[in-house]
Amino acid sequence: MVYRPTARVLTVLELLLSHGRMTGPDLARRLEVNIRTVRDYIAMLVDLGIPVESERGRYGAYRLRPGYKLPPLIFTEDEATALTLSLLLARKHGITRTSPALESLLAKVERVLPTTTRSRVQAIEQTVHFWSSSFEVAPQASVVMALSSAIQSAHCVELRYQSAHSNETTRTFDPYGVVYHEGFWYTIGYCHLRQGQRLFRLDRILQIEVLADTFSPPDNFQALEEVQRALASVPRTWRIEVWLQITLEEVQRQTRLSKAQFIAADNGVIMRGDVADLPWVARFLAGLGVPFIIHHPPELRAAIQHYAHTLANHAEQSATKVFERVDGQDTPISLVARPENNTP
Known about the structure:
Blueprint: H1 5-19, E1 21-22, H2 24-31, H3 35-47, E2 52-54, E3 62-64, H4 77-92, H5 95-98, H6 101-112, H7 115-127, H8 141-153, E4 155-162, E5 168-181, E6 184-191, E7 196-201, E8 205-214, H9 223-232, E9 238-244, H10 248-254, E10 262-265, E11 268-275, H11 278-288, E12 292-296, H12 298-316, E13 317-326, E14 329-339
Antiparallel strand pairs: 1-3, 2-3, 4-5, 4-8, 5-6, 6-7, 9-11, 9-12, 10-11, 13-14
Helix pairs in contact: 1-3, 2-3, 4-6, 4-7, 11-12
Protein name: YafY family transcriptional regulator
Domain Helix-turn-helix type: 8-60
Organism: Ktedonosporobacter rubrisoli
């Protein structure tokens, strides 16, 4: 990034706003300049009407007058470009589908930029494309925020989690890290229910609550390496290709998967990608409610047949009340799931 004098002066202001108090040597080190240049930057801020106060002496430092807030955000061209790329990546990975705030933020950034910078930022938005061959499933933004907060403060969380087989459990969990890997978001940490380190997909977290209890995270824990190690023990990744009798607009409206996974073809849509969870694909296809043709892998047909059999078994079950005679009245004592034919 190219530093200009004005950009460095604004950087001094941002550092003082974020840190509250910084010494001259600290500012010089962060800006890679000498102490005299820092004094010049401080003087320029004062000339601009920014209330920078100097604390003299051996432990002296610079700070903004207490209570001072900078009303507008000021972005350099490099900062605006970095922010735009970050927002585009967030949109690509699905976060904006659950948090419209990112789209609003991108629009606000563009609106306040100078004309020349805004044109360049819009050029990035219109011409830069991202591609991944993996399915991309977005978690709820609130889940990401809650886990990140819990990790930072070392607080336990309570998760209501749905497994790949649709089984729901509630557990206390000590989150060590959050990782985005090959289209999915994961958290890894200590599971109190299973009494060991476990990996969870964020899109399967149905509910999360940050608890008052705290934990001590392992020293030098490398979340990405641990997630990759855990995934290495997961069954192989499958290359999926399925034709769907649906329009591109409709499938994008019904799903949170990345648009890159769908291509209009043969009066329908081709869905392609890599996935390690065939039962999840079976549930996804069934949930669309449209005809489809599996091109590959053949193992997906078996997964769908198994899911269909499971649904059929559920449909055959009925809840039958069991009564006992109490004080001359029929009183329900339990609910028992029985087949519809009620054979003994």
